[in-house]
Each structure stands twice: as structure tokens, then as C-alpha cells.
């Protein structure tokens, strides 16, 4: 598997004991989800059913026009076997990256 859970190559920030490394770019949650759905060969409709969300809502998340809620993050984490904090942190990193980019 080469998606988010297999590669960890696109995690938005790395915190060590002495510093936090800020990435050059952070990606919306939808991009990570696209990768995971592709690797698992799940359709948007299948994934929506798995996480208990309407397909249009999942499509908006995948398109980057809707952010995930805490409840949705928990459902995504259950589907993928991760923590819901992972998904919320990815979203927060992207939001902060957008703010930094806008401020520059």
C-alpha cells in the first residue's frame, strides 16, 4: 500500500523534542482520502456508506470544499484503523498553511 497509511510521505508537520518543522506545502484531507480510496479500490459511494455520511458530503470533502467534523474524523479513523486526531491534524495543518500563504 502506498497511500497515506503506507508511505507517510506527505504528513504535514513533524514535531520533535526541540522544534517543529513546517512543511513547504500541506494538502487538504480530501487528497489523502483520494489516495486511500484508490489504494483500497473503494468508490466514493462505498466509502460514504462505510463512514455513514451522505455521498454528496463525502464528495465535497474529497473536492476540498468541505472540512471534516470531529464526528466525520472519528468515522474515517474507524474505517482506516487510525486515530481521529490524525485526520483533524491533517485538516488543521492545511488550514494553517493556507493562512500562512495568504498572509505572505
Write the SSE topology.
Elements lengths: L3 H4 L6 E2 L4 E2 L7 H12 L3 H8 L3 H9 L6 H11 L3 H20 L1
Antiparallel strand pairs: 1-2
Helix pairs in contact: 2-4, 3-4, 5-6
Structure overview:
With 104 residues, this protein is mainly α. It has one domain (27-103): lambda repressor-like DNA-binding domains (434 Repressor (Amino-terminal Domain)), CATH 1.10.260.40. The chain has helices spanning 4-7, 29-40, 44-51, 55-63, 70-80, 84-103; strands spanning 14-15, 20-21. It has a two-stranded antiparallel ribbon with strand order 1-2. The longest helix has 20 residues, at 84-103. The chain starts with a helix and ends with a helix. The model has no long low-confidence stretch (mean pLDDT 85).
Give a short summary of the structure.
The protein has helices spanning 4-7, 29-40, 44-51, 55-63, 70-80, 84-103; strands spanning 14-15, 20-21. The protein has 104 residues and is mainly alpha-helical.
Distance between the termini: 36 Å
From N to C, what is the helix and strand string? Answer: HEEHHHHH
CATH topology: 434 Repressor (Amino-terminal Domain)
Total helical segments: 6
Largest sheet, in brief, is: 2 strands, antiparallel
- Fraction in beta strands: under 5%
**Strand order within the widest beta sheet:** 1-2
Counting helices, strands and paired strands, the structural category is mainly alpha
Amino acid at each position: 500500500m502506498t497511500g497515506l497509511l503506507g508511505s507517510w510521505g506527505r504528513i504535514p508537520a513533524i514535531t520533535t523534542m526541540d522544534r517543529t518543522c513546517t512543511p513547504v506545502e500541506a494538502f487538504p484531507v480530501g487528497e489523502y482520502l483520494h489516495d486511500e480510496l484508490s489504494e483500497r479500490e473503494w468508490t466514493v459511494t462505498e466509502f460514504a456508506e462505510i463512514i455513514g455520511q451522505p455521498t454528496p458530503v463525502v464528495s465535497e470533502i474529497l473536492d476540498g470544499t468541505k472540512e471534516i467534523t470531529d464526528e466525520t474524523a472519528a468515522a474515517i479513523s474507524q474505517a482506516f484503523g487510525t486515530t481521529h486526531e490524525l485526520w483533524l491534524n491533517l485538516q488543521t495543518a492545511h488550514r494553517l498553511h493556507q493562512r500562512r500563504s495568504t498572509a505572505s
